[in-house]
Amino acid sequence: MNENIKKHNQAFGYLYGIVPHLHKNWTPTKLSYLAGIIDGEGSICIEIQSQSTRWNRKVDYYSLRLLIINTNLPLLEWVQENFGGTIRKRPKVENRRQCYRWNICSIFAAEILKACQKYMIVKKEHTKVFIDFAKTMNKGHYKMSDILLEHRKELYLQLKHINKTY
Predict the structure, then answer these.
(1) Is 36 contained in some domain?
(2) Exposure of 125 by Cβ count < 10 A (0-12 exposed, 13-18 middle, 19+ buried)?
């Protein structure tokens, strides 16, 4: 592979939260451990943002997000070291321990969930819908058919419903 392309791919991956070489180290033990953390402390989300275009047409933009919130910073550092993503310190709440948030988005989150899927127990259904949504994503900003937009909306509403019942 051309050295410049290799550097670009590594920079792109790092920029968006996952270091490309990390998934070479995803052992079944690490994946099952992460699945347990996500089952207990994770949040699997499809987020929506509506914007108006200059032609006064409302457009929905979706984003995929995988979060883990925990008070144990070394745990989240382990997740980041092995799976990429970012860690942020949450605002301190009086009389509570400091919380931290690990976060990864888009196809990188889907890639992690796909690898963990067979180990999920509580959030197995969440994971399936999330991965199905990720399959509808394309590179760039191409015009999507109304059928695809409707399918995305259905998956968004399905995950929203699943999240309310757990």
Answers:
(1) yes
(2) middle
Q: Is 138 helix (H, G, I), strand (E, B) or coil?
A: coil
Q: Which of 120, 11, 2, 8 is nearest to 66 (CA)?
A: 120
SS3 of residue 93 by DSSP:
coil
Q: Residues 155, 160, 164, CA angle at the centre, nearest 5°? A: 145
7's enclosing H/E stretch is helix 3-15
Domain extent, residue 50, equals 29-165
> Are the C-beta atoms of residues 19 and 10 closer than 8 Å to each other?
yes
Q: What is the pTM of this model?
A: 0.78
User: Which residue's entry shows tokens 């991956």?
Assistant: 13
**Which structure tokens are listed for 78?**
């382990």
Domain count, the chain: 1
- Spatial distance between the Cα atoms of 42 and 131, rounded to a whole number of angstroms: 16
The overall average pLDDT reported for the chain is 82
Confidence of residue 88 (pLDDT cuts 50, 70, 90): very high
Binning pLDDT at 50, 70 and 90, where does residue 148 land?
A: confident
CATH of the domain at 110: 3.10.28.10
